[in-house]
Amino acid sequence: MTNGNIIELNDSNWEEMLSNQEKPMVVMFYLPACPHCKQIEPYFREYAAQFKDSCTFIMMNGLDSSITAMRYGVRSAPTFKFFCRGKAIKEAVGLVYPSLLKAAIKELIEHGNECVLHSTPMPDEISPYE
Question: Which residues contact 30 (CB under 8 A, 6 or more apart)?
Fold first, then answer.
């Protein structure tokens, strides 16, 4: 489901998007009742409009996306995950300053491909029991 410049995904359609995406992606994991999510969401929407040609913006409701959230170690809302070439390469957790979020998006667009080649990928699944 697309809402303006943002695609709303859940556990059932995440893998398809991840495997077919060529542009860098910024994913916002949120909860409907989360006050910090509501506070940062207008900035996320603004940046989605501003950078729509260079980056894909996705929102995932933690209630509908619990498997995906668990897979990427999301334990707080909001959590922003930055993906390049299908790999999570960076994250920002909590109510981040809008200017820091914007800077992280610009960095992803400018250096994402380079970064994914020269970094250790974040594990797809994080478990405290391993």
Answer: 37, 41, 59, 60, 61, 62, 77, 78
